[in-house]
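From the pipeline queue, job 12 of 40. The input is one protein chain; the requested action is below.

Action: predict structure.
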Amino acid sequence: MGIENRYYFHEIPSYEEVGVILKTFEGAPIGYWHDVGHAEVLSRLKVCPHEKWLSSYNKYLIGTHIHDVNDQLEDHFAPTKGTIDFDKIIPYLKNTPIKIFEVQPKSTAEEIIAGFDYLKEKGL
């Protein structure tokens, strides 16, 4: 089971609650699921820095949802169609066992392929 970081600051689990859950159930088949867009939105809102999620819970990381965020804090864009600095987070995600593109239905095949190629070139 993956405990995912959320989009809205008032949703459960918060950054701190993720830590409590992971420590409480250490050894159980429970890990951390990092949503790149959600973490970026919370970072831009000054709730929790994006890299803090990854540095704190990296040893529990079992998967990630990969998508971009625009300047209006809308998420689920194909990578390169928003403004996330992927160079900051790619080092944390390289060894993630499961990587899923979670993009809007209106994303075109070309945008998705370009985003995939971009991340592949960056080593993800």
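Job complete. The domain at 2-121 is CATH 3.20.20.150 (TIM Barrel).
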